[in-house]
Design a protein that fits this description.
Strand order of the largest sheet: 3-4-2-5-1-6-7-8
Number of helices: 11
Oligomer: single chain
Number of strands: 8
CATH architecture: 3-Layer(aba) Sandwich
Radius of gyration: 17 Å
Strand content: 15-25%
Helix content: 40-55%
Distance between the termini: 14 Å
Number of domains: 1
CATH topology: Rossmann fold
CATH class: Alpha Beta
Structural class: alpha/beta
Amino acid sequence: MRHGSCHRDRQPEGRRGKNHDCRQSGRFTGGDGKKTLLIDCDPQANASSGLSIYQDQITENLYSVLFDPQNARKAFVGTELPFLTVLPSAPDLVAADIELVDKPGREFYLRTLIEQVADEFDYILLDCPPSLGLVTLNALCAATEMLVPLQCEYYALEGIAQLLRTYDQVRKRLNPRLKLLGVVLTMYDGRNKLNRHVKREVWKCFPKLYFQTLIPRNIRLSEAPSYGKPVLTHDVKSRGAEAYLSLAQEVVRRQTAA
């Protein structure tokens, strides 16, 4: 059973790239009959709302069970896909970064929670916030693989250096089993000169780790969250849906070859 962390680099222009990747990955693995748990580790809870899970409809969330892992299942929410389960987030999760500061073993609370339920799933996806706080550190310490969705913008390219330094430190000191699965470019427009430049730089810096699949800018991807659906449910024939299917297949091939 694999624990996969989706981490987005800091970007000033929206959050669609990162949240889409974890939601769509969950949709693919769940739709393929693999029992999948998506853990929303972001206080903005976009991965949750993108699957029609809203704050006024739930009583438990990741924050409420993070310090009470035996009751993690109480926060699980089913989806329209029988094999996809979500552990939703809430704005309260912001407080976890403060509360974890002086706790012993503060980096491993999420790992402890996952250990309670790991045997029930084939895949566990951790949707991380863009900040490198203690909740994100918990996700990196709980995961076995890290996938980095990178928006094709200059600031995102800058931020990946900081993320990789954190990744190296986590591997050395806290979680030696963590592997970098790869970098996927999102919101890509081949007509844009900057996008092409970012693609070349990523392919040059990560010759063995970049994914061939490019996630395009696509209106269906942008509007799917407003319907509370993954793009594969919203419009499976769209360019965005086809790209995510291709990415999921590429991820599976890479895992199989590892």
